[in-house]
Amino acid sequence: DGALTHKLLSPRAAVEKEYVATCEVAAGADAALARTPEAFLRDRLAAGVQTTLGVHVGDVLEARVADDDRVTVRLVVREGKHRMVRRMLANVGAPVVGLRRERFG
């Protein structure tokens, strides 16, 4: 249904979207990212991250260090702009290597 799809995906609707992202800790990234990823990402994403699409805010629900210098992040955003989550995380030093949307609303 087109109307429902538009309501769920439109950035103006502010429907929560939960994502799970697997990120690499970039070489030269802030040491706090590698040491305490949840606190670092929560603070940075809550304050807003500047991307080419503007400033975006995300709520980090969980972040944990996985094997081989990767971090798994569970976050919620209320906009739905193209590649927004990937751009936000890359701009804080955690480029995304895997991303999936878990839920709407």
> What is the terminal-to-terminal distance?
17 Å
Give the % helix. Answer: 25-40%
Question: Mean pLDDT score, rounded?
Answer: 87
Strand content: 35-45%
Order of helices and strands: HEHHEEEEHE
Strand element count: 6
Q: Structural class, from secondary structure content?
A: alpha+beta
Strand order of the largest sheet: 4-5-1-6
Structure characterization notes:
This protein has about 100 residues and is of the alpha+beta class. Helices cover about 30% and strands about 35% of the residues. The protein has a four-stranded antiparallel beta sheet with strand order 4-5-1-6. The chain has a two-stranded antiparallel ribbon with strand order 2-3. β2 and β3 (about 55) form a beta hairpin. The longest helix has 11 residues, at about 35-45.
Topology, pairings included?
Layout: H1 2-9, E1 17-24, H2 31-35, H3 37-47, E2 49-51, E3 54-56, E4 59-65, E5 70-77, H4 84-91, E6 96-104
Antiparallel strand pairs: 1-5, 1-6, 2-3, 4-5
What does this entry show, briefly?
With 105 residues, the protein is an alpha+beta fold. The protein is 30% helix and 36% strand.
Tags for this model:
about 100 residues, alpha+beta, four-stranded antiparallel β-sheet, two-stranded antiparallel ribbon, 4 helices, 6 strands, about 35% strand
